[in-house]
Amino acid sequence: MTEFSRGEDCSQATLPELVSAALSGDRGAWNSLVDRFAPLVRAVISRFRLTIADADDVSQNVWLSLVEHLKDIRDPRALPGADSQLIAQATGRAG
Description:
Elements: H1 15-23, H2 27-46, H3 52-69, H4 79-91
Helix pairs in contact: 1-2, 2-3, 2-4, 3-4
């Protein structure tokens, strides 16, 4: 298994490689997933026009949900859609 360290360029790593490594406890892989998808999470959350505090809460809930359910994602390439679904669910709890 490939291990990724913080700050390492993981841009060439495939999504399945990152997810597999993150599931095995590789913090560098998890950090790379966050780095890769944080812009998407922020962009989708911004569409809901939440307060800054609520947007921060939704973001935190999305990442927590992803940690809890990463093992349930059958095809890691579906992660962007899963993120969007988690955001939609989390915005129902915001505000």
